[in-house]
């Protein structure tokens, strides 16, 4: 999960009224283009709808309040990214370049700079979660965060369980704690690529921990990928006779 920009406004196409179309002309003045507010509302609805559906509140009052809180947050986040995305992109490139060169010092420095930039959005971030907490239970607030990060905590946690066999409870707790920390930061990211980058930041920490716990991380990944490829090949082989029979 390349993903499109999370905050790109929807394109709006205007047409004349149906009566004008039937007459092949419009006698009235041309319709005014929708305001940015109208466009923002359409985009806000696009992103708030899956949140409302996931919460299953069955309470019109709560739904209205959640929409209001999300709308305020979305507007602030959209404006903040418009001002900071160029700098953020350059810093993530700096981080990736350092990682590719195995320069952990520069990679860590790039992450610190990214944290510094995002620090200016912390008040709005805190306000968003605090206001949600006045309407929703803690588990429901987590649901909102999961929707905003396409459920990466659960998916990644389950993947670690498949890759690293025999994880103990305290090891699972460490992994889950760090994945939730990644989610906390990733909800403010501007694109799905950047959300994944925040999770990568914490995956590095998790994998360093697992190495210290005695796991051979590279070998575990190699075995996991090899098994996936073998399973996929087996599925294709099993499906082949059925395809040939149809022919």
Helix content: over 70%
Q: Which structural class should the secondary elements be placed in?
A: mainly alpha
Strand content: under 5%
Main beta sheet: none
Low-pLDDT stretches are: 1-36
SSE arrangement, N to C: HHHHHHHHHH
Mean pLDDT level: 85
Q: How many DSSP H or I helices?
A: 10
Distance between the termini: 35 Å
The number of domains = 2
Describe the structure using short key phrases.
single chain, 247 residues, mainly alpha, globular
Report on the architecture of this protein:
- By secondary structure, the protein is mainly alpha-helical.
- The N terminus is likely disordered.
- The two termini are 35 Å apart.
- Helix 3 packs antiparallel against helix 4 and helix 7 runs antiparallel to helix 8.
- The protein is built from ten helices and no strands.
- It has two domains: 115 residues, no CATH class; 86 residues, no CATH class.
How is the topology of this model organized?
Elements: H1 18-23, H2 36-55, H3 60-100, H4 104-118, H5 122-133, H6 138-148, H7 152-163, H8 169-186, H9 192-212, H10 217-246
What's the short version?
This protein is an all-alpha fold and 247 residues long.
């Amino acid at each position: 999960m390349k993903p499109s920009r999370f905050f790109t406004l929807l394109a709006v196409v205007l047409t004349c009224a149906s009566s004008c179309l039937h007459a092949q002309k419009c006698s009235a003045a041309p319709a005014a283009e929708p305001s940015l507010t109208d466009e923002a509302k359409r985009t806000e609805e696009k992103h708030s709808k899956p949140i409302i559906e996931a919460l299953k509140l069955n309470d019109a009052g709560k739904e209205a309040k959640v929409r209001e809180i999300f709308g305020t947050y979305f507007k602030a986040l959209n404006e903040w990214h418009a001002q900071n995305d160029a700098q953020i992109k350059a810093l993530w490139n700096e981080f990736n370049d350092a990682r590719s060169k195995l320069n952990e010092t520069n990679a860590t420095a790039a992450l610190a700079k990214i944290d510094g930039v995002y620090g200016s959005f912390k008040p709005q971030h805190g306000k968003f979660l605090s206001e949600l907490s006045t309407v929703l239970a803690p588990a429901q607030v987590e649901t909102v965060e999961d929707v905003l990060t396409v459920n990466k905590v659960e998916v990644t946690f389950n993947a670690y369980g498949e890759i690293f066999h025999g994880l103990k409870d305290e090891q699972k707790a460490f992994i889950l704690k760090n994945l939730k920390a990644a989610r906390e930061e990733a909800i403010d990211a501007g694109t799905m690529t950047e959300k994944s980058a925040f999770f990568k930041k914490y995956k590095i920490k998790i994998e360093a921990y697992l190495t210290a716990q005695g796991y051979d991380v590279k070998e575990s990944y190699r075995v996991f990928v090899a098994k996936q490829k073998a399973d996929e090949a087996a599925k294709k082989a099993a499906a082949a006779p059925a395809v040939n029979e149809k022919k």
